Amino acid sequence: MTQPWLRAPDLDFARVRDELGLTADFPAEAMTEAERAADRYVGRRADRRDLELVTIDPPSSMDLDQALRVRPDGDGYLVHYAIADVAALVTPGGALDTETRRRGATVYFPDGNVPLHPRVLSESAGSLLPQQDRAAVLWTVRVDSAGDVRETTVERATVRSRARFDYAQVAADAAAGSLHPAITGLPAFGAAREEWALDRGAVMLELPDQEVVRNDDPRKARAWTLRLAPSTPADRWNAQVSLLVGMCAGTIMREHGTGFFRTLPAASEDAVDDLRETAARLGVPWREGLSPGRFLAGLDPAAPSTLALMSTGASLMRGAGYRAILPSEDFGPSDADLVHAGVGGLYAHVTAPLRRLADRYATEVCLAVTAGRPVEDWVVEALPGLGKIMSGANSVASSAARRSVDLAEATVLSDQLGARFTATVMRAANERKAAEIFIAEPAIIAPCDAAPSPGQACTAEVTVADPQAGSVGFTAVAAGAAG
Description:
There is one protein chain. 34% of the residues lie in helices and 26% in strands. The strands form 6 sheets. Strands 2, 3, 4, 5, 8 and 9 form a 6-stranded mixed β-sheet that branches. Strands 16-17-18-20-19 form a 5-stranded mixed barrel. Strands 1-11-10 form a 3-stranded antiparallel β-sheet, covered by helices on one side. The protein has 13 helices and 20 strands. It has helices at 14-19, 28-35, 95-103, 119-125, 167-176, 186-199, 233-256, 269-282, 292-297, 304-313, 335-338, 357-370, 377-412, and strands spanning 7-8, 46-47, 53-56, 66-73, 76-84, 107-109, 112-114, 133-143, 149-165, 210-215, 223-228, 259-263, 321-325, 339-340, 345-346, 420-427, 435-439, 444-449, 457-466, 471-480. The chain has 2 domains: 13-265 and 319-411, no CATH class; 414-477, CATH 2.40.50.140. Helix 6 packs across helix 7 and helix 8 packs antiparallel against helix 10. By secondary structure, it is an alpha+beta fold.
């Protein structure tokens, strides 16, 4: 049942920010520190402005944490990854440091964000904007053709990004054979590292990512729309660079017995059994010996059954957390306690310090231990409490994203009660939740009564659309075989 592209004339996300107690304003003393921020390590940096680095980010982003260079290197790849050196701009124990520890992370909304740092720092002085000299932490990693790391160094450096790209542009340039010289090795590197990760049990879920977008074309009436966030091969390639450096950081910190890790336990047998049962019910073959990650990676993205299998596969990723280890621990955790099963090894957040607090501290550990010096006290003292801060920040960010989409869905459908849409069932009902359906246009994921089995197509009728409560609901009125 094809519907016109539905629009909401106006959406007030300030309401969601208020409900979550969020404000973009900073205390006066913290703002003053940000405005006066200067490099605390000036004169102690390598000059690497010779490196031809570029950034790859969404078009509207101004808080550019990373600049990269990925080139073929013999039978492998040479990766340079420059990360904004936020620790050089934030005084430990100062007002800005205190405020960022309260916030934990940047929180994103369709109409902007509530930043971790004042914009004068996160979108200007600290951001790796093109043609600007910037303080950075430079990772240099040599990777062989199989994706194995052969050499890693990390140092403070001055860098200068040459150009700014978005994902769509990089993907288009790759298809046309006209990639910027800095990233000619990126597609092959990304593919090699994806294979490397899958060989180690990594799981890469491809689930619909809803996006609430405002039309700012002055020739048209302003309106908000719900759509699927665009995804390109360049998104995956770029993510593999970040994952590589995060895994190098995890290895460095584990070897030296100090650090802060992003963790995920191995999937439970029940979760794997559920995925196998769903595959069997949908008639999707699972070859003997194939890991869950390999099975999911091999699915046909166009098949409705894939949506149901990816949704079921999300249970493989339950239990994500954080773990600090300190030099004073006599008996530290095992690798099983520290591993991130979703990426296939030890992993730490170090690549987004403008937007995520923990990265500043984990990076400082890596810089210290690779230089053979003690980790500074302000870093060690912060490690035990970082997990609580980051878990709280993640919860707020998740709520902000979900409530923003809920508000958009309810508003878009508020005059559509009784309208019918073609949907695919993502998840079956259980004792706690109704079944869940996916509608492609407008992009909606919502509860649905009387839904058929996961992976099946159905016609779903809007029965609830309450913008005040931010809730929507459907009832399946007809079912058909998934194509």
